[in-house]
Amino acid sequence: MREQGIGASVRRKEDQRFLLGKGRYTDDINVAGQTHAYFLRSPHAHAVIEGIDTSAAAAAPGVVAVLTGDDLAADGIGPLICGVTVTSDDGEPHRAPAHPALAQGKVNHVGDHVAIVIAETLTQAQDAAELVDVKYRPLPAVSSTGDAAGEGQQQIHDVAPNNVCFNWPFGDKAANDEAFASAHKISSIELTNNRMVTNPMEPRAALGEYNSGTEEITLHMTTQNPHVHRLVLAAFNQLAPEHKLRVVGPDVGGGFGAKIFVYAEELVVGWACRKINRPVKWTGDRSEAFMADAHGRDHVSRAEMALDENGGFLAMRVHTTANLGAYLSTFSTMVPSYLYAFLLAGQYATPLIYSEVKAVFTNTAPVDASRGAGRPEATYLLERLVDVCAADMGLDPAEIRRRNFIPKDAFPYQTPVVQCYDSGDYEAALDQAMELADYAGFAARAEEARSRGKLRGIGFSSYVEACGIAPSAAVGQLGGGVGLWESAQVRFNPTGNVQVFTGTHSHGQGHETTFAQLVCDQLGVPFENIEVIHGDTARTQFGMGTYGSRSLAVGGVAIAKACDKLIAKGRKIAAHAMEAAEGDIEFADGNYTVAGTDKSMNIAEVAFTAYVPHNYPEGVEPGFDENAFFDPMNFSFPAGTHICEVEVDPDTGEVEIADYTAVDDFGRLVNPMIVEGQVHGGIVHGIGQALLEGCRYDSDGQLVTASFMDYAMPRADNAPDFRIGYAPTDPPHNPLGVKGCGEAGAIGAPPAVINAIANAIGARHVEMPATPETVWRACQSAA
Amino acid sequence: MKIDLTVNGQTASGEVEARTLLVDFLREQLRLTGTHVGCDTSQCGACVVMVDGKSVKSCTMLAAMADGCDVTTIEGLANGAELHPMQQAFMDNHGLQCGFCTPGMVMSGLDIVNRHGKELDAATVRRELNGNICRCTGYQNIVKSIREGARAMGD
Predict the structure, then answer these.
(1) Residues of A in contact with B19 (CB under 8 A)
(2) How far is residue A512's CA from residue A507's CA, in Å, rounded to a whole number?
(3) Which CATH architecture has domain B85-152?
(4) 20 to 30 A from A257, CA-CA: which of A89, A291, A615, A616?
(5) Do A721 and B140 touch (CB under 8 A)?
(6) Would you say residue A177 lies in a domain?
(7) B2-75, what's its fold?
(8) Alpha-carbon distance values, B72 to A651, B45, B76 (Å)
(9) Interval A489-548: pLDDT, tens
């Protein structure tokens, strides 16, 4: 049985249906009487709407309804909200402009939602949308992150003077300045963290059904967190009371953050299905994903490090401008603040850190969490700065890291930026990575590459992230509007099989397998008899969903706690049945045994007894079904060192990832096969950011990269096979000993790649994405 | 207009508009929803099917053009619950995560075998997968799956 328990690379339960083409994604679902929706979107980055005439569209063949912001406002639906408050330096909360789900008088980015056209067929809806007459008066647009708050810029929202959402200083500036004043050396870097389009392969979609008898709305949709969607749609958007709203996330084709948020389309579909009293289906296309999914990253930063004569880090200061787009997406404000500045210590014992973050509005799509969310931005800035420090001090990049690492005997380690790291051994990961990557042999490989006209470089990236999001009390103190516990229910059926209901959501992570392994291990039930159920507010009691590498670290523990309760209850039932004292009952491998005897009862028999309680202990409730909530005491802190080797062709600027090593500390691995897959995917996501992906708006706010033709996603030939290792440490506060692994690659990879390119061509910095043109130009300057 | 074709070994027919894409015909009329739509520019490859033995992005082909053709989709590979060796190799090598690009990857894998044989080197597979995008796996396990699936397909 343990062959399929914790630590085994068990084949995934979910694969059979996906491989047979029997996955059931939102767009695969059709219901009787269904209509089709198409969203009319703004072609302008910034414009006043002087009028909308829907009469011709409404009269077009097959059209059921054409609805605008006025209809939405009349029904009191919306606006969309941002759930985390950041206090600006004037003591006021961040500036929060109205975010109507359908435009009311103004559009603020290309793709902004103007109207929904609902028809019998999708093509009828699309055809009719062309007949909606919208009178726009275009306004100048703001699209540059760095210039958005500058003098004389076009004002986007009245409530946000100079287009500033918040100015957020953090840390002891005076002490920091003092350390800088007495530093041996100051190293600095200025860089951009390029805007990414998250691009899960399944575009967003929603299918709304209204039951006029029960007055219940059922919304099938692409969600990473069905209960969070239900909560926000009910509590803040007035879609329906929470108990009259069912949100189902069926199979979901990837998320990476983009499907966390409460967007206009899903809300409008839910509202429209009740308004027209027919099911409404909307499936976004890829262009809509580019225009209207929340994007990621988009920072412009300057960072400085004060160094002592040995290359020791004395103090760091950071100035960042973060682009939040045209409106505040659901969790947008926390990404460049708490998820960013609180990670700026990285793996180093830098005693003083001061940061100032200015968050700005622009006429671009909203920016929110995307795989890593704030942590990739912090890691990239820090790890690039560390390499610049190494160059300035004439130190090997591995050596300067080693000198400044938080030592392994210093945990728990309180950083100067709120986070208290619970466990880690950064030097062990570095050593293992250097061994796996054959760092000692690098000089010879570089020499050999030179003989072929190639420049070979090596780059390090030592990251730490805060996962297992998150202790609710910490979230509350930081201005978050939710608790980030997780819930689980573990139900034995009378026939002995087990249903595990989790509030997390699997959209590629393999929870149906990993969580079944946990239960298999703990309850001793055959793996094939365990079914993990997720993604439906009508089936799962509660949940906060999947993001921030939290599913196993938080949701897995909730499952384990529910299993503990079952085991404890079963002990009473077994004791009674076997006529023994409860204290004499031992539980192991699925069997309750009377200590010192061969009398035993399998947990399945106990479960049956609980449902057929003919001979049953007094005072014990029938049934074998327990639930649990788990609220973590701290974040978890996965960490590791990644080493990338690149070969640059100086004549073309082309970069080849020649070798890549990742050694990570994720704590205990439940399914190493799945973990390794997460690492691979994360690394390629990060390589995509480093080499290929860059979302661009022109100066008029037009989205220049609006398809896979213009926005380069990483493909199979952009990376080699990876060398993967683990250097685990035990997180003392996590009962399962796990830390989370889904974002590590996307955090570790970008600085490793860019550090390698900078090393190869002898440049101080190369901006991402390091396209052939960028690298070629950098080669010319370096030469 | 009316079209008649063979899909997964069975005759199929339907009434389509001139502008109906093959993928929409498969998904909406035949309810073969294993073929997916991940983009609108024929870049992602989630919709790859076999038409007369050659891989085709079914979002680039009109349903009308498939009149009289023999189409195989992901639903047509397995023998009941028994996976095709290429499908089995994806399961054994963790060649899929969210499953959305997977049908296209499997079909492209079969096409690579058709054109390059059953002994495939990694570089060939990586190059030939240029028309398929996956955001989850980082490709390494897809490449491994296709190579192993190819070998398992035997003679």
Answers:
(1) 123
(2) 10
(3) Orthogonal Bundle (1.10)
(4) A89
(5) yes
(6) no
(7) Ubiquitin-like (UB roll) (3.10.20)
(8) 45, 15, 6
(9) 999 999 999 999 999 999 999 999 999 999 999 999 999 999 999 999 999 999 999 999
Contacts of A713 in chain B (CB under 8 A): 43, 133, 135
Dihedrals phi, psi of B3, to nearest 5 degrees: -125, 150
Same domain, A306 and A321: yes
Q: Distance (Å, rounded) from C-alpha A264 to C-alpha A250?
A: 20
The answer to whether B23 contacts chain A (CB < 8 Å) is: no
Number of structural domains (chain A) is 3
Identify whether A576 is part of a domain. yes
Distance, C-alpha B34 to centroid of its chain: 9
User: Residues of A with CB below 8 A from B102's CB?
Assistant: 18-19
Q: What is the DSSP letter of B75?
A: G
Query: In angstroms, rounded to a whole number, what is the distance separating the alpha carbons of residues A342 and A352?
Result: 12
Q: How far is B126 from chain A (nearest CA, A)?
A: 5
> What residue in B sits closest to A10 (Cα-Cα)?
B92
CB A491 within 8 A of CB A498: yes
Contact pairs from chain A to chain B, CB under 8 Å: 183
When computed from its CA atoms, the radius of gyration of chain A, rounded to whole angstroms, is: 27
Query: Out of A20, A680, A709, whose CB is closest to B137?
Result: A680
* Residue in B40, B46, B142 closest to A201 by CB: B46
User: Bridge-partner residues for A547, per DSSP?
Assistant: none
Complex ipTM more than 0.85, yes or no: yes
The answer to whether B98 contacts A15, with C-beta atoms less than 8 Å apart, is no
Residues 112 to 151 of B: which have CB under 8 A from any A CB? 122-123, 125-127, 129-130, 132-143
Question: Is A200 in Cβ contact with B100 (below 8 Å)?
Answer: yes
CB A297 within 8 A of CB A195: yes
The percentage of chain A sitting over the pLDDT mark of 70, rounded to a whole number, equals 100
CATH number for the domain that contains residue A619: 3.30.365.10
- The length of chain B in residues reads 155
Eight-state DSSP code of residue B43: -
DSSP letter at A155?
P
Segment A236-257, tens digit of pLDDT: 999 999 999 999 999 999 999 9
The pLDDT of residue A2 is 67
CA B48 to chain centre: 4
